[in-house]
Amino acid sequence: MLNTQPSIAPVGAMPKARPSRPPLIDVEGIAMIWLRDMTRLWRQRSRLVGGIVRALVWLFALGFGLRRSIVPIAGLSYEQFVFPGIIAMTIIFTALQSAISIIWDREFGFLKEVMVAPTSRSTLILGKCLGGATSSTLQAAIMLVFAPIASVRLTTLNVLEVFVAMFVTALALTSLGIVIAARMTDFEGFGTLQNFITLPLYLFSGAVFPIRGAPVWLQVVLYINPLTYGVNAIRGALLGYGAAEIPLDLALLGVFTVIMLSVAILITRREV
Question: What is the residue extent of each domain of the chain?
Answer without folding.
Answer: 27-268
